[in-house]
Specification:
CATH class of the largest domain: Alpha Beta
Helix content: 25-40%
Strand content: 15-25%
Number of helices: 9
CATH superfamily of the largest domain: Ribosomal protein L1/L10, rRNA-binding domain
Shape: elongated
CATH architecture of the largest domain: 2-Layer Sandwich
Strand order of the largest sheet: 9-8-10-7-11-12
Largest sheet: 6 strands, antiparallel
Length: 299
């Protein structure tokens, strides 16, 4: 932690020396001739990448320097980057009474009397920057499964078909579209709708069953329901059919699908997962929800 010390000058404005006319240091915020409120034409240098505390007695100009000078100038410069059309709704911001400020980056100000009482709140959570930082790492970073330590992958439809041919050539498989994942309900209407569309089988809680009229499950228990979209053998002459079935399975499963191999398809066990836009572990097929800004965070 470092603190800043300011030196007072005469209240009359003075011309800046040649050294000050040049661009300031990149490792510090430099303020020259600040005269807002109680500030008496002071010069100050604030180092970057450090926690800086401005101290002083009441009325010495601490808030005038931090909020009314540095923060105000940072906000004014940011507003100037907007187009003329946008600025007419925002309004012009008055320039603080200061000769020059160099090394100023985009600024954030948090009220001293915040209404948030959460002890885990930080600058990042209060300003919601934390959500964007998390999203940035989720998009540009390489994710790994916390179960196996393997790298996470995302497959397109073409990559899923190619992976199926690579791993299951010559074997009989079933393609399943997840319709319900860990939710309660009897789902009578869902079963009837799928039956009317021509589908014959579903997998309910790990067991493959035939779709029959008036079919339903216990409404008070949590269920996993997957629709059996197609059953076929992985051969070259059926590549076009497999590609269409994968596309339809991903559409019904909202970009998720499961694959069962014979004889596991008869019992409903032995699933292998693949995703179009969802991350999955390449080794065991474990599925993970993709990071987004909508994910909750501490406020």
């Amino acid at each position: 932690m470092s603190s800043t010390k300011s030196k007072k000058k005469d209240s009359a404005p003075v011309s800046l020396p040649d050294s000050i006319q040049q661009e300031g240091r990149s490792d510090a915020i430099e303020v020259y001739g600040a005269r807002v409120h109680n500030l008496k034409n002071i010069d100050i240098s604030i180092p970057k990448n450090q926690l800086v505390v401005i101290t002083g007695i009441s009325g010495s100009g601490k808030s005038s320097l931090a909020f009314d000078t540095i923060y105000s100038e940072g906000q004014r410069r940011y507003m100037e980057t907007f187009g003329a059309y946008a600025r007419q709704f925002i309004g012009d911001m008055e320039r603080p009474d200061v000769d020059k400020i160099t090394g100023l980056s985009p600024v954030i100000s948090i009220e001293q009397k915040t209404t948030n009482k959460n002890p885990r709140s930080t600058v990042g959570t209060i300003t919601e920057i934390y959500d964007f930082i998390r999203l940035m790492y989720a998009r540009i970073g390489e994710a790994y499964s916390y179960n196996t330590g393997k790298k996470m992958v995302k497959w397109s439809e073409e990559e899923i078909v190619a992976n199926i041919f690579e791993r299951f050539q010559g074997r009989r498989i079933s393609l399943l579209a997840p319709l319900v994942r860990g939710r309660k309900g009897h789902y009578r209407e869902l079963f009837e709708d799928m039956r009317k569309k021509g589908y014959l089988r579903v997998r309910v809680d790990g067991e493959v069953q035939e779709l029959v009229p008036k079919m339903q499950v216990d409404r008070y228990k949590i269920h996993d329901i997957e629709l059996v979209v197609d059953r076929l053998q992985v051969t070259e002459d059926l590549r076009a059919r497999l590609s269409q079935s994968v596309q339809q399975t991903l559409k019904l499963g909202k970009e998720l699908m499961f694959l069962l191999t014979e004889p596991d398809a008869a019992t409903g066990s032995g699933k292998s997962a693949a995703g179009k836009k969802k991350p999955s572990a390449k080794s065991n097929g474990g599925l993970f929800e993709e990071k987004s800004r909508r994910a909750r965070s501490i406020q």
